[in-house]
Design brief:
It is built from 3 helices and 5 strands, in the order αβαβββαβ. By secondary structure, the chain is α+β, with helices and mostly antiparallel strands. It has one domain. Strands 4-3-2-1-5 form a 5-stranded antiparallel beta sheet, with helices on one face. It is globular and about 40 Å long.
Length: 106
């Protein structure tokens, strides 16, 4: 059966992989429970991504290094994952400034 909403620009623009763009909050020192946060998350060389599993659950993946235990959780929607990420990073004086769709060519 044809579903017209699947042909919309909005539907096509959203992929099952997103990159969270993180920046330090201006005037604040970044921190976590063991000291500083990996500065490569905003200076380049590392990234945090949100991926949708085959079961439809969203989870975090870090490009390099160990993913913090607090981020080893799954979410039923991208909205819930982003809210969690914003709360998690704000406690470390960081902010999620953008969520980019990652499109892979077929």
């Amino acid at each position: 059966m044809f579903h017209p909403e699947e042909n919309t620009v909005e539907h096509k623009m959203h992929s099952p992989e997103r990159e969270l763009v993180i920046r330090p909050i201006e005037g604040q020192k970044t921190l976590n429970s063991v000291g500083v946060v990996d500065t490569r998350l905003w200076k380049g060389g590392n990234s945090i991504r949100a991926l949708m599993s085959d079961t439809g659950l969203w989870y975090f993946k870090q490009e390099s290094g160990l993913l913090p235990d607090a981020l080893k959780v799954q979410f039923t929607s991208i909205t819930k994952l982003i809210k969690f990420a914003k709360d998690y990073f704000s406690k470390r004086n960081l902010e999620v400034v953008e969520v980019k769709d990652i499109h892979h060519g077929s």
